[in-house]
């Protein structure tokens, strides 16, 4: 459990900076926003009721601080328009989901051929599992099993490569590579 500002700094400093850099282009602005995030965390640490939810609480503060940054830019300069994409958390989720999807596509190439075909045909060519079974000479239950096994292998590969953070709907909202020499991402 994380309860002190020091432990939050140790845990979140680098991941938060990376999170902000994916949304803000200017390095000086990134540093300013990161400082503002930790100031807000420090100021409101006593309002954190459930230390089990520290991760979500910290990233909510970071998202809100980024939105505040764009609002201030729009107000001060009058040139940046806030779009619904910037304000919505689903944009953040889509970005992480899209980045992870690229890793998964690379991982598919490493699957055994029968699993690779099952995933490609059902997920990318949108065949039903019944159609997959007909095309590959399998029963419907055999086709379902093949797709489930292929998905399980992909999940195992992904979790071996990355640490993922999900929202309550199961969307990827952030991730960290476990190693720098991952052959997939």
TrEMBL record:
GO terms for molecular function: DNA binding; sigma factor activity. Residues 10-74 form the RNA polymerase sigma-70 region domain. Pfam families: Sigma70_r2, Sigma70_r4_2. GO terms for biological process: DNA-templated transcription initiation. Residues 102-154 form the RNA polymerase sigma factor 70 region 4 type domain. It comes from the Bacteria. Keywords: Sigma factor, Transcription, Transcription regulation. SUPFAM superfamilies: Sigma2 domain of RNA polymerase sigma factors, Sigma3 and sigma4 domains of RNA polymerase sigma factors. InterPro entries: RNA_pol_sigma-70-like, RNA_pol_sigma-70_dom, RNA_pol_sigma-Z, RNA_pol_sigma70_r2, RNA_pol_sigma70_r4_t2, RNA_pol_sigma_r2, RNA_pol_sigma_r3/r4-like, WH-like_DNA-bd_sf. Belongs to the sigma-70 factor family. ECF subfamily. This is RNA polymerase sigma factor SigZ.
């Amino acid at each position: 459990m994380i309860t002190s500002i020091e432990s939050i700094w140790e845990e979140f400093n680098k991941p938060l900076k990376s999170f902000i850099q994916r949304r803000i282009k200017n390095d000086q602005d990134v540093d300013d926003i990161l400082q503002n995030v930790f100031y807000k965390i420090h100021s409101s640490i006593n309002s954190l009721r459930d230390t089990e939810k520290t991760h979500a609480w910290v990233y909510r503060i970071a998202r809100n601080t980024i939105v505040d940054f764009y609002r201030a830019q729009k107000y001060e300069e009058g040139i940046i328009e806030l779009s619904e994409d910037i304000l919505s958390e689903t944009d953040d989720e889509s970005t992480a989901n899209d980045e992870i999807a690229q890793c998964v596509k690379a991982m598919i190439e490493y699957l055994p051929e029968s699993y690779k075909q099952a995933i490609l045909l059902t997920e990318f060519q949108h065949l039903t599992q019944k159609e997959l079974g007909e095309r590959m000479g399998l029963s419907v239950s055999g086709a379902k099993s093949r797709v489930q096994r292929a998905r399980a292998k992909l999940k195992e590969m992904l979790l071996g490569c990355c640490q993922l953070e999900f929202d309550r709907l199961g969307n990827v909202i952030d991730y960290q590579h476990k190693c720098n020499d991952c052959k997939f991402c």
